[in-house]
Amino acid sequence: MSNNGKSIISDKKAIITTPAEVVDPKEVWRVNDFNELIYAHGYEAYLDRAMRCACVEKATGQALSTCRNCLGRGWFFTDRRETRVIVQGMNNSKKFKDWGEVNAGQARVTARGSDKMGFMDRIILLELEAYYSEIIRPIMFESEIIAYPIYEPISITNMFLFISETQVLMPVPPEMYVVDKNKIVFDPELSTFVISDDMNDVNPPMTLTMRYSYNPVYHVIDANRELMRVRTKTDPLSDSRLTDMPINVLCRKAHYIFDPQKFGESLLENNMPT
Fold first, then answer.
1. Better pLDDT: 268 or 214
2. Domain boundary among 214, 230, 263
3. What pLDDT, on the 0 to 100 scale, is given for residue 68?
4. CATH value at residue 59
5. 119 vs 122: CA distance, rounded Å
6. Is the C or the N end of the chain the one with fewer CB within 10 Å?
7. What is the predicted pLDDT for the residue at 40?
8. pTM: predicted TM-score of the whole model, two decimal places
9. 50 in Cβ contact with 75 (< 8 Å)
10. In this structure, what DSSP letter does residue 161 have?
């Protein structure tokens, strides 16, 4: 059927026109929008402030190995803050070199400007769980067989005891150990399964491998945006105060920065009075 050469699309006329809106071309920073986005979509987290320990020697720059404020690490953490952060690129990226495997374990974290994160600050993600496989070597300390994993286990999924190179690994049942934060106390009966060359060795050395879940822990190693402050009013000559924009930092998994806690030592708490 012919339509007399008329287009049913372009030749159709509009009978109603939506009125134009008044447009303000001025650029305005809407900092609250960023902060609301972080709060609405971020993860619950603890933020611990990092401080260099005063035990560090002037001549060598090394921390005292006997210091209970930092456990010889040279850093202690204070003034815990509860906040929310957005985490991006939270991966376990691996690069293979000629001599082995290099694992970066990096992530980018975005927080509100009021959190004021700095170098080596510790971020603990409370709503996320990661899994880690670790070798532990318990020792006898104050009549207990104890070991300290790097992270505080939420749940231990697998644990095996090394008997010898010719025998299969022995599964360790949950009733043979007790988890107390980042300390594991073992049943003394476990040492009887270890084969020792010394018949007089009452507590032969043990080696175990374990896989467990934990809350991811990161430390700030670099800042992509930490000094950006803007005026929220349209007039640049106004008396409005500068407002902190969100902070974006590069972080690394804790086990790439610090060794596990020392046996039988606990950190002293250092917090500013509120």
1. 214
2. 214
3. 83
4. 2.40.10.370
5. 9
6. N
7. 83
8. 0.72
9. yes
10. E
